Structure formats: C-alpha cells, structure tokens
What we know:
Blueprint: H1 4-15, E1 60-64, H2 65-71, H3 76-80, E2 86-88, E3 104-106, E4 114-118, E5 121-122, E6 143-150, H4 154-157, E7 164-170, E8 176-189, H5 198-208, E9 219-235, E10 241-252, E11 255-256, E12 267-268, E13 279-280, E14 290-292, E15 299-302, E16 308-310, H6 313-316, E17 325-327, E18 330-344, E19 347-366, E20 368-370, E21 375-377, H7 385-390, H8 395-400, E22 403-405, E23 407-411, E24 417-438, E25 441-462, H9 464-471, E26 473-475, E27 484-486, H10 487-490, H11 510-516, E28 517-538, E29 551-567, H12 569-573, E30 586-607, E31 610-623, E32 628-641, E33 644-655, H13 659-663, E34 667-672, H14 699-703, E35 713-719, E36 727-738, E37 746-758, E38 761-763, H15 766-774, H16 779-782, E39 785-786, E40 799-806, E41 809-824, E42 835-851, E43 856-858, E44 862-863, E45 874-883, E46 888-897, E47 900-902, E48 922-923, E49 926-938, E50 941-948, E51 979-988
Parallel strand pairs: 4-7, 35-40, 44-47
Antiparallel strand pairs: 1-6, 2-3, 4-5, 6-7, 8-9, 8-51, 9-10, 10-18, 11-17, 12-13, 14-15, 14-23, 15-16, 18-19, 19-24, 20-23, 21-22, 24-25, 25-28, 26-27, 28-29, 29-30, 30-31, 31-32, 32-33, 33-36, 34-35, 36-37, 37-41, 38-40, 39-40, 41-42, 42-43, 42-45, 45-46, 46-49, 47-48, 49-50, 50-51
Amino acid sequence: MKNPNNRQRLLASTLLTGAAFLVISAPAMAQDTPQDAELDDVIVTGSRIPQANLVTTSPVTQVTGEDIDVAGVTRVEDLINQLPQAFAAQNSTVSNGASGTATVALRNLGSSRTLVLIDGRRMGYGSPNDDAADLNQIPEQLVERVEVLTGGASAVYGSDALAGVVNFIMKKDFEGLQVDAQYGFYQHNNDYDGVGNVRAEIARRGLTNPGQFVLPEDDVSDGESRSVNIIMGVSAPDGRGNITAYAGYRNNNPVLQRDRDYSACAIDAPAAATPTTFTCGGSGTSFPGRFTDFAGGFNSTLGTGRTFVPFNAATGNYNFGPLNYYQRPDERYTLGAFGRYELNDQAEVFAQLMFSDYKSVAQIAPSGNFFNTAEINCGNPLLGPQQAATIGCTAADITADNRRTLYIGRRNVEGGGRQDSLNYTSYRGIVGVRGEISPGWNYDIAAQYSRVALARTYLNDFSVTRLGRALDVVDTNPGPGVTPTCRSVVNGTDPNCVPYDVFIAGGVTQAALDYLQIPLIQTGETTQQVVTAAITGDTGWSMPTASRTVQVAFGAEYRRDALDTTTDATFQTGDGAGQGGPTLGLAGDTDVAEVFGEFQIPLADDQPWAYSASIDGAYRRSEYENFGTDTYKLGADYAPIEDIRFRASYSRAVRAPNAIELFTAPGFALFDADRDPCDATTGVAPASCFGTNPWQVTAGQSTSGALRSPAGQYSRLNSGTATLRPEESDTITYGVVWSPSFLTGFNISVDYFDIQIDDAIQPFNPLNTLDSCYISGDAAACARITRNSNGSLWTGSGVVSDPNTNIGGFGTTGIDVNASYSFDLEDLGMANMGGLQLSYVSTILSELVTDNGDSVYDCAGFYANQCGIPNPEYRHRARVNWATPWELDLSATWRHYGEVEIAVLNRANGSLNNGGNRIDRYFDAENYLDLAAVWQVMDTVTVRAGVNNVLDNDPQLSRSVGTTGNGNTYPQLYDAMGRYVFFGITANF
C-alpha cells in the first residue's frame, strides 16, 4: 500500500481541479472551515499542478455542501446564482422559451462562455437545443464543494472557458449509509404596494372582465418541493479501494402567475389619465376574439348572438399571464457510483457513472388562431348577416361564396394552456487509470462518454392547416335548415374536419377541439467523447532563493461533441399555430485534438525580500477541422511577508463555434420590444420607415395601430452560420490577499478583473437590427427585415432575421471582494457561547460593454431591451453563522442587489439612461434576509430548517420584461414567489 504522501499526490493528479476547505487563504473562498484543517498538496481549479498554497494567481470563490444545506436548495443552480459573479440563464423560472435545462452564465457573458466541470472534467451539451451544460444532472447532496474561477481558462481546460469555470467537486471515499430528505414550499402574502398600483388595476379590470382579471387569495402556499437522496459507500478492507453509490429523487410542484398579485396580469404602460398606474396589457389574440382586416376597415369582437361590435384593446386584449408557470413543475431521478481500486503502487483504476432522468413542463397561455388565417368565404353559414356585412360581404358575394379578408385572433381558452413537455435522460461515464511513474511524477489517463437524450412533446397547440379547413365552412343542407360542414369534408380532402364556430359565444365544440389540437414532437440527442492523458511532475530543480521545486504538467486530449435532433412534420412545416414558424431538425459535430502544458516556478521562499514568490504559465494548442487556436496564461504571486500576498494573471482564451451555432436550421422565435420603430401610434416613425421595400410600411399602416404587438413580442428568425470564426478573449486579473497575523481567523481578498471578448459569436439582436436600419440607414440591417402584407413584424410572415454571426465583442471589468472572519465568543468575554463565522462576497461591476459593430453600449447598472437581465453595479452575499455550544448552528444571510435603470439606447452616443419619466425606469435596490438552523440531534442525525426571503419582499416590476424574464419581473435574479420555507433531515448509519 502507498505511503500517505504518495497517496495524496495520486488523488491530486486525479482530481485535476478543486481546492481544500478554507484555511489561511480564505479570501479565495466563500465559506469558512476550521483553522486547524490539515492541508496536503491539492489541485486548485485553474491548474493541474498539485500545490500546498491555496492562494492561486487567478481568483477562485468557493461554496460548500454546507451552503446547500443552509440555503435549503434542491437545485444547485439556485445556490450558484446567489454568488455575485453568477447570473442565471435557463432555470426553473423560465416558461416561455424554456429549454428545460438549468444553466449558469458567469459575469452575464452568456452560458456558452462558462465552462462547467465535474471533478475537473467537462460536462457536455445540456440539450440538443442548448449548448450549455445542464446542472440538473448534478445530484446536490453529492456536492462536496463548488469552485468558481474568474476569467479565461482555455489553456488548462480547452474551449468555452472565457467568462470562467464552475467546478463541482463531488464526495468520494464515502463510508456507511446516509439518507437525506427535505421538504419545502413557497408562502406569500398578496399585498403588493410597489410601483404601478397593480392590485388596483386588476380589481378595476375585473369589474368588466371577471373571467380574466381576478386578484388571488391574500395568503397563498404553493410550489412544494420534495427530495430524497441516499448515499452508500464501502471501502476495501486494506484501504486500497472504495465504491460510493448514490440515488436520488426530486419533485417540484408548479407555481402559476395567477397566484401572485403582481403577476396576475401582464402589465403595460400607464394610461394618460393614470400616469402612476400600470395598465393590464395583454395579447391581441384575445377571447372571445378579435376580427380585423388590419387595414382600418373593421376591428371587431363578438357581440350578442352572431354579431360584431368594435374591439377595444384597452378592455379586450387577452390577459395571458395567469396560466403561465412562474415555477415549472419537474421530476428528477438520479443514480450513480464513483469507484477506485489501487492495483499496485503504480496503477489505480477509477470510474464514475452518472445517470439522471429529468421531466418538466413549461406552460404558457392557450394557443388559438394567432391571425394565422387571412380570409373567409362569404357564404359561410357560421357568419351572421351583420358579421358578413361588417367584413364587406354583399348579397352577391354570399351567393357566389366569394372570399373576403378576415384575420382572426382568438385564444383556445376551451383547450387550456400550451404545454411543452420536456424529458431529458442523461448518462455520463468515465474510466481511467492513474498512478506514479516515479517519485514525484504521476500520470492520469481517462476516457469519458456522455449522452443526453431529449423527448419533447408540445401539447394543446392548433394546426394552422386544420384551422383553415375548420373555418372554410359551407351549408350542405338543401332545405331551409343549416348544416355547417367543412368544405374539405365535402370534397374529400379531409373527411375528419369539424367546423370551428368562433362567431358566437359557446359555439366551440369538443369535437372541434379534438380535430384542431395537435401534438408536436421533437427527439434528439447530444454526445460527448473525451480522451485525456496527463502527466504531472516535480522536476526536482529549484531556484537558489526558493525551497520549493519547479512543477510541470503536460498532456494531450481529444474531444468530439455531436448532436442530432429530429422534428415531426408539424414542427418542420410550421403548422403549429402558436409556434411562429417552422422548427427544423439538426445534425452536426465538432472535434478537436489538443496538446497542453503547464509550469509553476517558485522564485523565492523565506527570503529577506520575499516570504514567497512564484510565476506560473500554461499553453494549449487546439486543432479543429477548419482552423487551429493557441491559448495561454501567465500568472505571478508575491508575498513580501506572510500576512499579505499580491497576485496577477493574464490569459488568452478561445471559444470555438459549437455544432448548434454552426448548423442550426432557420427557426422562428420571439424577441421583446417596447415598440415597432415604424409605429406612429406609439412614437415618432422616422422617414426611413416609409416606402415600398420589404422592410418599409405605408403611412396608413404606420397609423393603423396594427404594427404594435399588444404583448410586446415580435418575430425573429434564428439560424446557424457555417462560417463562424472562433471567439478570443483576454483576461487580466490582479489583486491582494491579506491574512493578518494579529487578527487570527480574518482573511480578505480584493481582485480586479478585466475580460475582453473579440469576434463574439452572437446574433446581432433584432433590436439592434431595427435601429441600424431605421436610424443608421444600414442596408445590410434593412435586408434582414421582412414585413408581412400589413406591415407587421408580429403576425404572419413578418420577421427579423437574426442569424449567428461574429459581432464586435463584449467586455466587462469590476472588482471582487471576498472576506471571512472566524472567532470564539470567549475572546469577547462570552465564555461557553460558541463561536461566530462571518463571510462576505461581493462584486462591484464597472463595465459590461457590448460592441455589435454598429454601436457600443455599457449595460452595467441597466436592465431590459439590449441589456436583458438586470446588471447591478453592486451585489453581495453576507452571512453570519453562530456555532452554539448546544449542537445547534444558527445562520443569517443578507443578499443585496443594487439599483438598476431601464436601458433605452441612444445610438448617437451609446447612452442607455434615456428612460424619461417611465414609472419603471428604476428598480430599487433589493435586500433579502435568509435564516436557517442546523441541529445535531445525535451523532448520526442532523435536522435543519430555514426561511429564505423572510420578509417576503415583492419583486421589482417592469412592462419591458418580455420573455427575457417572466411574470413582469426577473425571477432568475429576484425572489419572485415569496418566502421559501424548508425542513430537512440527514441520518447516517
């Protein structure tokens, strides 16, 4: 059996990343650990070289498994997103546009630019529809700690690590049996009293439309979560091996927007008469329906019997908010095992096997006829005489059964909300061998395979083809009676057609719904194959002024990422009425062969001029099919005395275009906008809007009101681009770590970061395209805009093309602060009262710049429109933990998000602070208080309980949230569902 020192080196060469619990170098971490923790050589995220000094040249922040217990989370992304460096991308609060995955975006630079690792080995694509890793695959109770590295790390880990790295270190060498169970729920008091008087507006609208505008109960509890996890481990009698296995189950109930007063209606701009009160907006695809020609001839809704009356958007738009999910329901099973066995002193075999099965449903408002049909036959027996006359049918037209323009916008309220059922089955396996080549030199060879299978079924949507047939109705009764029959039944085109009678209240039958409602199906998979061989070694050589020796690491890696998705005919043809257009299949792969190397050179140890000093570096050469890349890193640290250490690093990172970005077929989606720039009813329309080009409108269309989407959602056409170039980033960090010897237990680090990304792979953004065309006169931008026959960009064929491209780039700068202080209360004269642990982590954001090649703007301190999720200039998480002498730990956490302002771009100077007198121009700073208690009932049993958002803060609201957020706010950032209460128990056997 190996001696302890060799054993530690062997484990270190396997982890490839990670860090020990917090000791002297606490500032790099977010959580305290005991000061007397023993420290062996370990691997710190950002390097393959084992080292005893945890203060790396690049800043690393850590959260631990204890943080998971204290926060009461069953989704690891909820914990990561509390860190100031992290922003949520896809998560459980996304419904409209949900991929069903959970992803993280460090520095808000996009989830594609954050590399996610498990024990130092990368995760594959989370979905055929999303290239970012899916955190749903990670069992939360197996997480020992999470390390977050700032900035580029491509030289160590390869492509994608531009914004940074999130590394999940899992529990290993577990012995015994552990059972953990937790139950939680949301509780909220509906008494919103913030900006916009939303409660009063809902109550007012409910007086005339009680079916759609209802205030929820004053006290609601929902969103229940249940999780059970089992960990079992056994070691070989001689200590040469261990197997740790786990199984878990998680279930979360939905939260509907109708159950929160601030999301029970989709808010819109205030009316002139009530400038401090949001109106309840909604969708022009309404109920009982909107019937129009979009040309000013008629704009109607149902009256009594088979009649039309004028449509009033202020009272008739459909309230699409209530049925949307604030929190998606989900169910997840996990299963896996980690094992190792030491064959001899030179070889240890190891394996990791992980499985997860995840199901979730994203529900949004009902489907219907989204103005998908453009005309109707005048002889239609479902039309009443007044209705026929309104749309311009004469007696002769009725006799001849001529056709007239009629766009219908009607919700399928009878059929219920659209449900996107998403099922991911994920597998991940690693096998390898590691060992000692000779004293001080170790090797690690591993092969990795991961696969994610998607089964997606979209329910309760309407078929556009069948809508056309179900509205094309004739009378087949030769006598005085009326027998409405689909023309397609008469001519044999579709004998199953059933008339869709939307021209009278209560006219829709179940038979019609059964005919019109269709499922849309997508299947697909992603795979990743990685083979890595690495050697780490101690050269035995040292500088004359250093006692530590030069360390190196080098190796080679091959990686292949592939995906394949297939959509059914309904998806492919765009026949789903609520889809906006076709969703096509995709197949593609990328592969890369790489060589890499690292060094660490100690310059001084215990010298008069330096307590310690060193430099380190890394290099990686990557060969793709059509190009090659070089990435590298240089770092240095200098401690003049033991108490203080200065560090700095520079890295060049690269992100190669992935299969989704390269090969995605054109597909329709939505983008959020406050207005169409050519809509004269909501603002000034520039002269460039008017003309006969595909991107232009007539004066009549501009003033008709038809250009404005009542929901603030317009159509975009996404697509891949096969000629994309790799992104490149340069990251500079420098800072100081201070652990004063005169204040035992106190540590602080302050680090500056500067990340600049060039040739960023990103859609140009439809908002930028519209501005570039109509304000800057950019012909290429104008060519990407196609309006439908009525000039609209939100109905029919109107769309802004938004393919992936290499834009100018992104840049972000700021300062991270990490501090911790642990002390016994006895030091303050309070004997036998335990001790306190204080921790603080914050980010001061100086810049978050986008350069799209046409304009440059800085989103630091702004939200919405071009800036998306709020980007506070200051965020922090502070915690105090009291370890009492009664086997009870009590903790309080303060989460702070600074004020932000709505982004309204002035292209002339790039300024964003142009929100005028909007009542939602500013989001106030938000402060959350979380409380938790952990009680060691007995040696083998621990119980925990807590409340997050104790004060039940209401979220900040804006009418410009759109599909970037959800429910009039940004639940990815703010606690939108109220206080969260949880109880848990852990038993060890």
